[in-house]
Amino acid sequence: MLGRSNSDKDSQTSGVLIQYIHDISAYLREVNISRKTTVLAAAVLVLAGLLGVRYREGGLFLPTSSDAGRRDLPIYCVQTDAPEIALTFDAAWGNEDTRKIMELLKKHDIKVTFFMTGGWVEAYPDDVKMILAEGHDLGNHSQNHKNMSQLSDAEKEKELMTVHDKVKELTGYDMFLFRPPYGDYDAKLIKVAQKCKYYPIQWDVDSLDWKDYGVDSIVKTVTENEHLGNGSIILCHNGAKYTAEALDTLITTLKAQGYQFVPLSELIYRENYHMDHEGRQIPDSKKR
């Protein structure tokens, strides 16, 4: 599935690489290039992606121009010298642990970002207002949690703006952060989101809490993740079985590693930035 990995080692790069292959294959078919050539081009692209992963493992990255290929990508992480990371929660179904999560966040005095579906907003309006009142970001997770790449541009916009308007009416807050359900996106979705004045957001550290492997697994998957670093975006879910139970240790461990938690609204750059091939947001200058 685009943007989501079944491995804790490639959750950032998988969506970008798959989308590259999809885009170039579609183009080659349009210009009537032979199947053999299409396969060869895809193979070359896979190799390039793997080289990018190897560079990242070595603490480096392959910079690309913001105009390279004119590809629009969501934000997977942010380049920053500060030891800042963003903890995010997708809220699409259950709500049993939201209050406990909020208590733990208050205990540790950190602010995070909640991405909510329209259905969740409708079902738990008091919690939406509570999250905002406690100083956390409210983010858009679409109205119906569909695979957005499979929708028309008009349907994409409706999925975004329906929940946007609901939150605006409920709280007076204009959301501007959007995470596609399942991490599934295409180039058209990025353009639609930007048209709607949204910053599309992914993640580079997946807690895998949605797999219900247990508390220790969540903590280890995040705190020992090879992609964890300054500017990382961590994916969690408010409705996963062990997330609330793991949260206290997770936060304590990350703080002990020297990281500071900030909401996405403070981590990302709002302007004067470009993206590298991995979806890393890079400032054009040192100023935010």
Keywords:
single chain, 288 residues, TIM Barrel, 2 domains, 3-stranded mixed β-sheet, 10 helices, globular, disordered N terminus
Provide structural commentary:
- It is a single chain.
- Helix 8 (215-223) links the parallel strand 7 (205-206) and strand 8.
- This protein is globular.
- The longest helix is centred in the N-terminal third of the chain and has 23 residues, at 35-57.
- Helices cover 42% and strands 13% of the residues.
- The strands form three sheets. Strands 2, 3, 4, 7, 8 and 9 form a six-stranded parallel beta sheet that branches. The chain has a three-stranded mixed beta sheet with strand order 1-11-10, with no helix packed on it.
- The chain has helices spanning 13-30, 35-57, 98-107, 118-123, 125-133, 153-171, 187-195, 215-223, 243-256, 264-267, and strands at 77-78, 84-91, 113-116, 137-140, 177-178, 199-200, 205-206, 233-237, 260-261, 273-275, 280-283.
- The protein folds into two domains: 13-66, no CATH class; 77-283, Glycoside hydrolase/deacetylase (TIM Barrel, Alpha-Beta Barrel).
- Helix 3 (98-107) runs parallel beside helix 9 (243-256) and helix 6 (153-171) packs parallel to helix 7.
- Mean pLDDT is 83; it is low at 1-39 and 44-70.
- It is α/β, with parallel strands linked by helices.
